[in-house]
Amino acid sequence: MKKQFIIIGMAALLAVLGIAALIAYANDADDRAFEGTEMVDVVRATTEVPARTTAADLVGKTETVKVPRAALVPGALSSLDDAQGLVTSVALVPGDQLSTAKLSEPDDVKAGTTVPKGMQELTIPVDGARLVGGAVKSGDRVGVIANFSGQTANPINGLLVLKVDSGAVGSDGAAGTLITVAVNTLDAEKLVNTIEFGTIWLTLQNDDTETGGGKTITSKDVAP
User: Fold this and answer.
1) Which of 68, 87, 108 corresponds to the end of one domain?
2) Which residue intervals define the domain Flp pilus assembly protein RcpC/CpaB in the entry (predicted)?
3) Longest CA pairwise span in the chain (Å)
4) Where is pLDDT greater, at 90 or 76?
5) Are residues 210 and 127 in the same domain?
6) 134 shares a domain with 49
């Protein structure tokens, strides 16, 4: 009986040592994955943060972590000190990187924008490069550039931006943004078709933006 207890005890000890070795190997694998990669500090949200949140109120709602430089969004902040005197211009969700594009002077941030009567809301997923570098905020007007198999056109202009949700960085290091706009039925159909079957770019527009004179462009127009 005593011999059986010894055997059982040794088996349990070996199992514990095996688990410890596996954990150590996994941690070492994580270290090897980032070997040779430049890691930098970035401030990111740890909870939902509404628009118009001050830098002081971001304490306790954000954390500073190290990420690969390639995973940084444009204008990412490495410290909350860089946000002093500013407020968030968009709502943040857990994992969002805090960047200059998501901060504004308090007087520049408009309160929530509601959908106009007779219109409907539609959300467009766009990455930073196709979103004027992430400079779009609630209350802005945007135009849509749609591309299908080498044909490019500007089918929609003057869309009212209702909400901007800056997406968290995914496992592939890509950062995205969700733009909610007010649209009529026809424009909603055009947008969904472009999102599903083509690629989309948004342009930031103002009251003086010239939207006439465009046409459907092909590669022959670019390089005759």
Assistant:
1) 108
2) 114-204
3) 94
4) 76
5) yes
6) no
Burial class (CB in 10 A: 0-12, 13-18, 19+), 83: buried
**Cα 115 to Cα 183: distance, rounded to the nearest angstrom:** 9
On whether the CB atoms of residues 115 and 121 are closer than 8 A, the answer is: yes
3-state secondary structure of 150: coil
Q: What is the pLDDT of residues 63-88, one digit of tens each?
A: 999 999 888 888 889 999 988 988 88
Q: In the prediction, which pLDDT does 172 show?
A: 47
Q: Are residues 218 and 130 in the same domain?
A: yes
Backbone angles phi, psi at 129, to 5 degrees: -65, -30
- Asked if 152 and 193 sit in the same domain, the reply is yes
- pTM: predicted TM-score of the whole model, two decimal places: 0.51
Phi-psi region of 103 (alpha: psi -120 to 50; beta: other; left: phi over 0): beta
CB crowding 171-207: b at 16 or more within 10 Å, else e: eeeebbbebbbbbeeebbebbeebbeeeebbbbbbee
CA distance 123 to 125: 7
84 located within any domain: yes
Query: Quick one: which of 70, 113, 121 has its CA closest to 90?
Result: 113
Taking phi over 0 as left and psi of -120 to 50 as alpha, with beta for the rest, 92 belongs to: beta
Containing domain of residue 44, as a range?
39-108
- CA 114 to chain CA mean position, Å: 22
Alpha-carbon distance of 8 to 15, in angstroms, equals 11
Residue 65 lies in a domain: yes
Residue 24 in any domain: the answer is no
Domain boundary among 78, 108, 138: 108
